[in-house]
Amino acid sequence: MEYLQISKNWMSNRWNSMYFRKSFLLILFITSIPGIISGIGIYIFGLHSTEKELQKVHADEITARAENLDEQFNYLEESLTYWAFEPSFNSQLMNMDFVKEFQETRDLKQKLLVLQGSHPLIKDVGLFIDRNNPVLMSPYLNEIEDKNIQNGFQSLLALDKNVTWQQPEQFANLEQYQNEISITHQIPGIVNDPFGAIIVTIDKMNLASILETLTPYSDGVTLLLNENNKILLSTSNHETDGLLDNIHLSLESATTSRNTFQMDWQDKTYSVSYGQFDRIGSNGRMYQRLRYLLLHHQL
Predict the structure, then answer these.
(1) In degrees rounded to 5, what are phi and psi of residue 138?
(2) SS3 of 140, please?
(3) Span 99-149, pLDDT tens digits
């Protein structure tokens, strides 16, 4: 007990010494320097590594979902090509009496309804026949008497590609197809002188639902753009034109099919991910490029 008391008194006297306290604190600081440096290094490099890993996981997830959408587009194109070779869509339609041959007319209508229900992205299906009195079955029979409307449908038959997502201006300006996304296939399947076309209009609501799955964020926005960066479809009603103008140069200079980057706009930081789908084109072009753009406001 006496020894402990002596030790306690010695330590107390030593601690009261300013020199002892400064020396002790200096020793503690020096010995802690390696730990501080190691901690800072682990934090910086660990944070950078974690951030890169999260970005990679994010990009891989978007890529997988985009490939799923691309496969649905491919399936839609293949299905339309299959139906374009349907034996019922032959040159006899040019002279067919749709009233007297009501059984054949009903069969045509039924086939169009089957095609319409064959894929969730299909909203409407029409069959245009360029005869003396042009008609459109959609799926009910309608004679086309207006010359401007006739010219719009007939412009589909002048395309170099028998199947395309890129429609001529005359057709795209028709009232029922304005602001629509459509894919058309000339009939019969392979001829130099087509007499008609199958017109498939895409269901924008279902397509928007699929586009929403591309972003893992509930507050994100997904846009579908054509190769001229015109918005074809958006999953949000928010105004994005100003932001699109700021990333326009980045999209033009893109050298890879998919990428992710960050940008600041109006005192906010946005995460931008984008990629592209190469769809069948027209007018001598093998493909029309569609781009998808994912925007997410980072807090």
Answers:
(1) -145, 55
(2) coil
(3) 888 898 899 999 999 999 888 899 999 999 999 999 999 888 899 999 999
- Listed residue (157, 253, 142, 246) closest to 198, CA to CA: 157
Distance separating alpha carbons of residues 38 and 41, to the nearest angstrom: 5
Which of 231, 257, 228, 241 has the alpha carbon at shortest distance from 66? Answer: 257
Name, in order, each residue with C-beta under 8 angstroms of 99's C-beta and a sequence gap of 6 or more: 105
Which residues lie closer than 8 Å to 169 by C-beta, 6 or more apart? 155
SS3 164: strand
Please tell me the distance from the alpha carbon of residue 270 to that of residue 186, in angstroms, as a whole number. Answer: 43
CB 104 within 8 A of CB 90: no
In a 3-state reduction of DSSP, which class is residue 168? coil
Q: Which residues pair with 9 in a beta bridge?
A: none
With b for 16 or more beta-carbon neighbours within 10 A and e for fewer, the 234-246 pattern comes to bbeeeebeebbee
Query: Is it the case that residue 63 has pLDDT exceeding 80?
Result: no
Three-class HEC string of 120-151: CCEEEEEEEECCCCCEEECCCEEECCCHHHHH
CA 31 to chain centre: 56
- Per-residue model confidence as pLDDT tens digits over 203-248: 988 888 888 877 766 667 777 877 777 777 877 766 665 666 666 6
| CA nearest neighbour of 199 among 223, 173, 165 | 165
Give me 72's structure tokens: 């649905």
